[in-house]
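Methylated-DNA--protein-cysteine methyltransferase, pasting as requested.
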Amino acid sequence: MKLNVPFGSIWLDADDKGLTTVSFSELAQHQTNQYTEQAAQELTEYFAGKRICFTVPLSVHSGTEFQRNVWKALDQIPYGETRSYLEIAQAIDSPKAVRAIGQANSKNPIPIIVPCHRVIGKNGKLTGYSGSTEQAGLAIKKFLLHVENVSI
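Structure tokens follow.
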């Protein structure tokens, strides 16, 4: 399912258990069902400033155990707050895995809803984000943080 958002379009996919994908590029195959419809509604509310948490069920089939642990830690970052890559590494008891945290973020199949945009450099600067180019990705990350009233 294609959803037009303030910075362009995103594509949603789901299986019979929940949302599987939020993508910044068109998906080869995707289906519309109750979970993509719910995600579209919740994302629309989020961008309108009317939603601070998502309730759509997720169905994640990808990722290593490490990546899944990172994604769970991302999900614990409250709306309107940020954490550093180091803080995420410490939260999953892997304090030396700061670079691996960045790699796990880049593999997050459900960005925005699993808020990898809330992870910033330890110096408070924006670093990496999924997108067609690094510059486009950082612009999306900055926009998402702006939606949440985070000053960067």
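Note for the archive: The first strand starts at residue 2 and ends at 5.
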